[in-house]
Amino acid sequence: MSTSADVRLRDGSVARLRAVPYDDPVARDLVARVQQEYVARYGGPDEAAVDPAEFVPPAGVFLVAEVGGQPAACGAWRRHVEGDDPTAVEVKRVYVDPAFRRRGLAQVVVAALEESARRAGYRSVVLNSGDRQPEALALYGALGYTPVPGYGIYAGGAGAVFLGKELESAEEERPWAS
Predict the structure, then answer these.
(1) How would you write the pLDDT of the chain (178 residues) with one tens digit per residue?
(2) Residue ranges of the N-acetyltransferase domain (predicted)?
(3) Is 15:65 a contact under the CB 8 Å cutoff?
């Protein structure tokens, strides 16, 4: 992915997406916010192990979206090491600050994550969410994600939801190319 991209949101505002290290101060702040969201919804933070090195290209990426210069959203992907498919990535930390919700920003972030994974040569995406995040589940369903087998520390956990999606190849996006 290029270092930054501007995208117009539903309300006409512009979001700037940029890749940053997982341990960048803005990324750390957004990750802390998403962890607080998990505490509010589930009673505790996400306990899945995360190593910042897993989000360094080409093995992964961490995206920050800013609106009006303010950190508004984030999302990341890393190689999915728990499955048997070396062409799969796992999406992590998709979050939109409450002040920036209902503008289409989560959809923009997920689309950018999918595109960057596809460009890095990956063919599928998996993710773990939960039944206390109905808005996230609705978004993923609308984007074509379907149930996949559970993995990691939440496999088989009450309320854990595992979803996946095949990424379109460049040939699928341009059927006229031969």
Answers:
(1) 445 789 999 999 999 999 999 999 999 999 999 999 999 999 999 988 899 999 999 999 999 999 999 999 999 999 998 877 889 999 999 999 999 999 999 999 999 999 999 999 999 999 999 999 999 999 999 999 999 999 999 998 999 999 999 998 765 443 433 3
(2) 20-168
(3) yes
Of 161, 156, 97, 169, the closest CA to residue 127 belongs to 161
CATH match of 4-173 with 3.40.630.30: yes
Please, which residues bridge with residue 19 across strands? Answer: 63
Three-state DSSP class for residue 14: strand
Give the angle subtended at the CA of 79 by the CAs of 78 and 80, to the nearest 5°: 110
Report the length, in residues, of the chain.
Answer: 178
How far apart CA 159 and CA 57 sit, in angstroms, is 32
Amino acid making up residue 107: Q
- CA of residue 104 relative to chain centroid, distance: 14
| Phi, then psi, of 141 in degrees rounded to 5 | -60, -45
Give the DSSP letter of residue 3: S
Domain ranges of the chain: 4-173
Backbone angles phi, psi at 112, to 5 degrees: -65, -40
